[in-house]
Fold this sequence. Notes:
This is Glucose-6-phosphate 1-dehydrogenase. The chain is an alpha/beta fold and about 475 residues long. It folds into two domains: about 10-150, 3-Layer(aba) Sandwich (Rossmann fold), CATH 3.40.50; about 180-410 and about 430-475, Dihydrodipicolinate Reductase, domain 2. Helix content is about 35%, strand content about 20%. The chain is globular, with a radius of gyration of 24 Å. The protein starts with 10 loop residues before the first strand and ends in an 11-residue tail after the last helix. Nicotinamide-adenine-dinucleotide binds near residues 21 and 94.
Amino acid sequence: MVSRVIPVDPFDLVIFGGTGDLARRKILPGLFRRFCAGQMTRDSRIIGAARGDMDETAYRDMVREAIAEFGPSRSEACAVEDFLSCLGYVSVDARGDDGWCDLKSALREEEGIVRAFYFSVGPSPLKKLAERLRQHGLAHDEVRIVVEKPFGHNLASARALNEELARHFDESQIYRIDHYLGKETVQNLMAVRFGNMLFEPLWNAQYVDHIQITVAETVGVSGRGSYYDKSGAMRDMVQNHLMQLLCLIAMEPPARFDPDAVRDEKLKVIRALDPVDPDQIVRGQYTSDGAMASYREDVENAASKTESFIALKCYISNWRWANTPFYLRTGKRLSDRASEIAVVFKETPHSIFGIDSGRHRNVLSIRLQPNEGMTLGVTIKEPGPGGMRLVDVPLDMTFAEALGPDAEEAADAYERLIMDVIRGNQTLFMRGDEVEAAWAWTDPLIEGWERRGDSPKPYDAGSAGPDDAAFLINRDGRRWRRIKS
Ligand code: NAD
């Protein structure tokens, strides 16, 4: 099946941080894919803006290399050159006064050209950047700004940043990006929940035993050590990505699939989250496995108490989810790279097949990576004449197989979200009040372990995390699903 591509309006997209790692690995190769797909047209422009001096030719060379390394496996050389002809570069200091006039003259004033600024520069220049855009007359009322994570370090800083952005831009112009929301499967989760009669009647405390959300990474933190050590897994992953996934799983059906209807429902979930007791949180830190460095070596801080792993159990206090545990875990240097949401349903109230038939539960597994897709585990009779023995089998729907190779090629989250920015659709972006509510829930948990001086539990690099994380769920008579690539 080939997906229908509708071109977006022509745009001028300025990428502040256009020479950075994110721009080279994700944003520019993603835009190139949209160009090849015909969604970004030739009358659009991308302007890299960063601190370093560089001319247009050097910038295009840099992007050519980035596409070769991170772009689609089959890139036609002429398509690359056509794409590069849409690119420009301006040296701008986001905090200072240099380069702004050049940037202004690089932008088109014609009507019908969408103007967007992607803030991919790290947290410290954000405030100045917003200010400068207004000051130099670049930010008219129709422009959009895209703000990368981290959005604040705690509630106070997130609130201050929201206030600062609000001085220059209306909330309808601000796109706080969480690339997890751009994943095909995450959007499909909403399609499955609200586009079928099958699931929603069962999607509550009466039928769901518990929910697990796992984001497991094999990489460590080397290269990002100084940032990560001040952040940790709670701030870097739970407050944003896992929280967003939790919201989409737990929210009530919005009245419409529109930005405020969806975000209102997500906000209600965050606000209904109970505080978490310290004994329901396990923090871990990876140790060296001989071949690879330990966390403390990676961040060059021999006394670090920052967690590279966290598992916790939380509850949502509302009618739908009362007393249903949500188990969340995420970590670095784990055995496999795998992200999954698993909705584990209750057992049938009575087994007509007797105790020998075993215990069976339907599990809806929503895999975010690798092999995005969904699997519904159902119980059937084991084939053959051996009597009535039951067996669990997966009803598998891996999107790449079901929808053909185009689905896989189109699957990157960043490019999808950038196209949404150009279309002016904020549904998959976090609203300011959502971000603040998420910090309001995580801040007391972080303050709690900092006040107590808790140290994270060591775990072997390449393992499934600290043993205590297994105990967290096992003591409830449940177990984590296996982390499997
Ligand atoms: P990076 O350090 O590789 O690049 C930073 C870019 O910002 C460079 O182009 C630099 O020239 C520019 N810059 C910095 N200060 C500037 C200033 N004052 N004026 C003009 N330009 C300035 O960082 P990165 O990894 O590309 O990350 C960019 C943002 O994206 C960060 O907020 C980061 O948290 C976020 N992010 C990155 C990743 C990733 O995989 N790299 C993933 C998620 C989010």
